[in-house]
Automatic annotation (TrEMBL), chain A:
Keyword Oxidoreductase: yes
Alphabetical list of PANTHER family matching this protein: OXIDOREDUCTASE WITH IRON-SULFUR SUBUNIT, OXIDOREDUCTASE, IRON-SULPHUR BINDING SUBUNIT-RELATED-RELATED
Keyword Glycosyltransferase in annotation: no
Species assigned in the record: Paeniroseomonas aquatica
Protein name in the entry: (2Fe-2S)-binding protein
Every 2Fe-2S ferredoxin-type domain range: 3-80
Pfam families: Fer2, Fer2_2
Keywords annotated in UniProt: Iron, Metal-binding, Oxidoreductase
SUPFAM superfamilies: 2Fe-2S ferredoxin-like (SSF54292), CO dehydrogenase ISP C-domain like (SSF47741)
TrEMBL record, chain B:
InterPro entries attached to this UniProt entry: Ald_Oxase/Xan_DH_a/b, Ald_Oxase/Xan_DH_a/b_sf, Ald_Oxase/xanthine_DH-like, AldOxase/xan_DH_MoCoBD1, AldOxase/xan_DH_MoCoBD2, AldOxase/xan_DH_Mopterin-bd_sf
Pfam families to which the protein is assigned, alphabetical: Ald_Xan_dh_C, MoCoBD_1, MoCoBD_2
Segments for region (Disordered): 1-30
SUPFAM superfamilies: CO dehydrogenase molybdoprotein N-domain-like, Molybdenum cofactor-binding domain
Name of the protein in question: Xanthine dehydrogenase family protein molybdopterin-binding subunit
Highest taxon of source: Bacteria
Residues in Aldehyde oxidase/xanthine dehydrogenase a/b hammerhead domain copies: 34-145
Alphabetical list of Gene3D superfamilies matching this protein: Aldehyde oxidase/xanthine dehydrogenase, a/b hammerhead, Aldehyde oxidase/xanthine dehydrogenase, molybdopterin binding domain
Length: 163, 753
């Protein structure tokens, strides 16, 4: 039996036909919608490589059944840049060399955006480190990641002040 | 603006550029931060099926039966590949023709020789169906008792360690040196099995077109993989096209062709459609290599002034039941400290595990944490500061070979690192310092070392009619920054600004760039690129200086310099001509040349070549609960010429993080009854998270090396694990007074101490 759900992906409402109830949100994005920027590192919520924003909250897409997300809104790494302009977190990751192999990077960036939206970390590097510790980076780019998150927060705050 | 290369014999012409040495951001950064960088598993050719491995739940024995019918009955399952229906191979996956060739498991029989060994492949229309099908196979086994742990089998002396090194080395009178020494230490250090755990699981998308094969698969050595697959499938290497533009981490585990890759190709052949096969995380704890455990017995003697009289280091390690990779942990003593007598030796046992493999700083990493711990223990026995003790035993020549070093700025590393860290005033006695919260504070240090190797690699440089350049080489970027740093070398090599240079890399149809391993890729491929660019400019200069219509006529090749897309007369910079104009007048559409990077045998015979460093670490330990945190890590490293300091610093941070992990976090735990790894996932196999490495600092110490290769580059990818791991261990001792010799150091070793 095919299940039909409505999913808003990166701002676009899509009707998604699911012929299989076992499909995770991650596999839906990667293998059916071909949004492969979101990565699979462990498939059990341990590494954070598949982090997306689900209804605005950072979420491990591998732990979410797609069938249960009728009406939900998903933002992936592909949905951040606007008109070719990188999101401040994306730009900060480049500027601070907050990546090496790049495989965990989409998840790190989505997690960073989620963390900033949560407003819990402030400009305290220790809290940023703690708040980003659900996203593993085997290359060891953590120093740059922390710097990038702090820098992006400052850029976003400046943008809000200007607005 | 860079200078002519210091310390190198003057080239026939000079090339100058401003790219080398610049801290450029990653050229692949925009792709990676937008999700557009395409890794192997991101590919989805038309008609593609999904393959999922079924892997062994026992460590040793035979597969008696699989419920193939149940799997095939599952909706969406297309085929189940077992030894019974696996397409034939032209080559034997159990053949071993060289130390760089490892035996693979490709369903050649029903034997199980380690847990997580592939025993079948389920191929289906969807990933979900293939996954379910694999679970439905419900294998039945005839299990034999597993051989587990370093005491689990009889030790033997291997024929070679590492890649072809002798298993033992002896020089001087070790026993006499120990006997006569007023200060002695002897201790046993144990390091665990570790797994690479690149964030990107091993993956392959295989598509056959007749006898031609296209593969999307992460590879640190595309040409070697091409050759291996060609031999196994009986086709020509040039008919295999490998695309590996980005690796999601490698660390050695993607260096050589592996069994799951072969199974993906076989599955595609069996079903006649493209197939994607991606390992599940737990399946990375078997068929794709690991770092073997070691037990290292170190004995040292020192005279009254703290000078070594003898060093003896023996390593017991493990390999698989069916192949040899012997972790050469003891050999790190060959290069580090001056001693009149030195003995290193290795033994190994055969266990029911996958074959160990190169893992970031193989040999050096486990060897370094033990040796640096032992040095720290010896320094304390001599009543000396650990830095003063290391300086007292500074090796002016390589201890084992007696050769001079091609360059060695280790003294500068010690000095700059110690100053930055604030080492002076460290109390000799342990357990002397506390922070404001009452945590125990300790400071430790270690020396870092890694050989400066050269592999063999090639590159092609093309100068186009419009004066722009193209450099092509089948290099590999697993995060070290090859896309960026090699392009910088390429631009300077052709005397072009970076925006006039196109750099192609990452596929097997380009010139063979060798293997990205041994921290040798930058040095090797840069040499090839530099040579190729130089050969093109040579020809261009010959055209110009031999043509009386050129303002450069008569200058001679040595009389011109290539810069910013123009050749200039050295004696009169105002006289110059653009590359495009020279080609145009000569009626040429372009110029092309190859370059090669390889070791210089004469230089290797004359010099010992290594990068060096010094790492200083502060840890804080909870006196009640034993929790440990590495609160400050400062490393100073000297590794020859730095092409891109931003990328190099990131490599050092990565290595330092691995060093912290080696000392405090990661280890695989094997169940003695089943032989299975109990923590084969990313929650229980602890990798450092962001909060585990709060403060890293890397100092790039200036060093010029005229001997290692034309550009004076040493590798930086592995060295920072060494030194760091031991420094953390030594800091834990300094904080607590407890010397832990079994790694990683857990709080259980410190509670109540």
């Amino acid at each position: 039996m095919t299940l039909s759900i409505s999913l808003t992906v990166n701002g676009t409402v899509q009707a998604v036909a699911l012929e299989d109830p076992r499909v995770t949100l991650l596999d839906l994005l990667r293998e059916r919608l071909h949004l492969t920027g979101t990565k699979k590192g462990c498939d059990r919520g341990q590494c954070g490589a598949c982090t997306v924003l689900l209804d605005g909250r950072r979420t491990n897409a591998c732990l979410v059944l797609a069938a249960a997300q009728d009406g939900a809104s998903v933002t992936t790494i592909e949905g951040l840049a606007e008109g070719g302009q990188l999101h401040p977190v994306q730009q900060a990751f480049i500027d601070h060399d907050a990546l090496q192999c790049g495989f965990c990077t989409p998840g790190q960036i989505m997690s960073a955006i989620g963390l900033l939206a949560e407003g819990q970390a402030g400009d305290d590097p220790e809290r940023v480190r703690e708040g980003m510790s659900g996203n593993l980076c085997r290359c060891g780019a953590y120093a740059g990641i922390t710097e990038a998150v702090l820098d992006a927060q400052a850029r976003l705050a400046a943008r809000e002040d200007a607005a | 603006m860079s200078d002519p290369i210091p310390g190198i014999a003057a080239p026939a012409h000079l090339r100058q550029g401003s790219s080398i040495g610049q801290p450029l951001t990653r050229r692949d950064g925009p792709l990676k931060v937008t999700g557009q960088a395409r890794y192997a598993a991101d590919n989805h050719p038309p008609g593609m099926l999904f393959a999922v491995l079924a892997t062994s739940g026992i460590a040793r024995g035979r597969v008696l039966g699989l419920d193939v019918a149940a799997a095939k009955a599952h909706p969406g399952v297309v085929e189940v590949m077992t030894p019974a229906n696996r397409p034939p191979l032209a080559g034997d996956p159990d053949a071993k023709d060289s130390p760089f060739m490892f035996r693979l498991d490709a369903l050649q029989n029903d034997a199980v020789r380690y847990p997580q060994q592939p025993i079948a492949v389920v191929i289906a229309e969807t990933l979900e169906a293939a996954t379910e099908g694999a679970a439905l196979l419900a294998p039945r086994y005839a299990a034999e008792p597993p051989r587990v742990g370093l005491d689990g089998a009889a030790a033997f002396v291997p024929a070679a360690v590492g890649v072809g090194s002798p298993a033992s080395f002896a020089q001087g009178e070790v026993e006499a040196g120990l006997a006569a020494a007023p200060r002695r230490m002897e201790a046993v250090y144990e390091t665990p099995a570790q797994y690479h755990n690149a964030m990107e699981p091993h993956a392959i998308v295989a598509a056959w077109d007749g006898e031609r094969l296209t593969l999307d698969t992460p590879s640190q050595g595309m040409a070697m993989a091409q050759a291996r697959f060609a031999a196994l499938f009986g086709i020509r290497p040039e008919d295999i096209h490998i695309r590996s533009p980005f690796l999601g981490g490698g660390f050695g585990s993607k260096g050589l062709a592996n069994g799951p890759q072969v199974l993906g190709i076989l599955a595609a052949r069996l079903v006649g459609r493209p197939v994607k096969l991606v390992l599940r995380r737990e399946q990375m704890y078997g068929p794709v290599g690991h770092r073997a455990p070691t037990r290292q017995t170190i004995r040292m003697g020192a005279d009254a002034a703290g000078g070594f009289t003898a060093i003896a280091s023996h390593t017991l390690t493990a390999t698989s039941s069916f192949d040899d990779f012997i972790e050469a942990a003891a050999d790190v003593a060959h290069t580090l400290y001056a001693t009149p007598a030195l003995h290193t030796s290795h033994e190994a046992v055969r266990l029911d595990t996958g074959t160990p493999m190169f893992m970031r700083a193989p040999g050096e990493a486990p060897g370094s944490i033990a040796l640096e711990s032992a040095v720290d223990e010896m320094a304390f026995a001599c009543g000396m500061d650990p830095l003063a003790f290391r300086l007292r035993n500074y090796a002016e020549v390589e201890p084992a070979s007696g050769k001079p070093f091609s360059s060695k700025a280790l003294r500068e590393c010690y000095a700059e690192g110690a100053a930055r860290f604030g080492w002076a005033g460290r109390p000799l006695q342990p357990r002397q310092m506390r922070d404001e919260a009452g945590l125990l504070v300790g400071w430790g240090m270690g020396t870092a070392t890694f050989p400066a190797m050269m592999m063999a690699g090639h590159a092609r440089a093309t100068l186009r009619a419009d004066g722009s350049g193209l450099v092509e080489t089948g290099a590999h970027d697993m995060g070290q920054g090859a896309w960026t740093a090699l392009a910088q070398v390429a631009a300077d090599g052709m005397g072009l600004p970076l925006d006039r240079l196109e750099f192609r890399s990452g596929t097997s149809d380009l010139p063979d760039a060798g293997i990205a391993g041994g921290s040798a890729h930058m040095a090797t491929v840069s040499s090839a690129i530099h040579g190729a660019g130089g050969a093109v400019i040579d020809r261009l200069a010959a055209l110009a200086t031999g043509d009386e219509r050129s303002p450069l006529f008569g200058a001679g090749n040595a009389g011109v310099v290539a810069r910013e897309g123009r050749l200039h007369r050295r004696d009169d910079e105002a006289r110059s001509e653009s590359y495009a104009a020279i080609l145009s007048r000569a009626g040429l559409a372009g110029l092309e040349a190859m370059g090669q990077g390889a070791a210089d045998p004469a230089a290797q015979k004359a010099f010992a070549m290594h990068a060096h460093g010094a790492v200083f670490v502060e840890v804080k330990v909870d006196p009640d609960f034993g929790q440990i945190r590495a609160t400050r890590v400062v490393g100073a490293f000297a590794a020859g010429r730095v092409i891109n300091p931003r990328m190099v610093r990131s490599q050092y941070y990565g290595g330092m993080t691995w060093g912290v992990s080696f000392a405090l976090h990661e280890h695989a735990v094997t169940d003695r009854r089943s032989g299975r790894i109990m923590n084969a996932d990313l929650a229980e196999y602890h990798l450092p998270v962001n909060a585990d490495v709060p403060s890293l600092e890397a100092i790039l110490v200036a060093e010029q090396d005229p001997h290692v290769n034309p550009l004076g580059i040493k590798g930086v990818g592995e060295i920072a694990i060494t030194g760091t791991a031991g420094a953390v261990a030594n800091a834990v001792w300094h904080a607590t007074g407890v010397r832990v010799r079994r790694f990683p150091i857990g709080l259980e070793a410190l509670i109540g101490a």
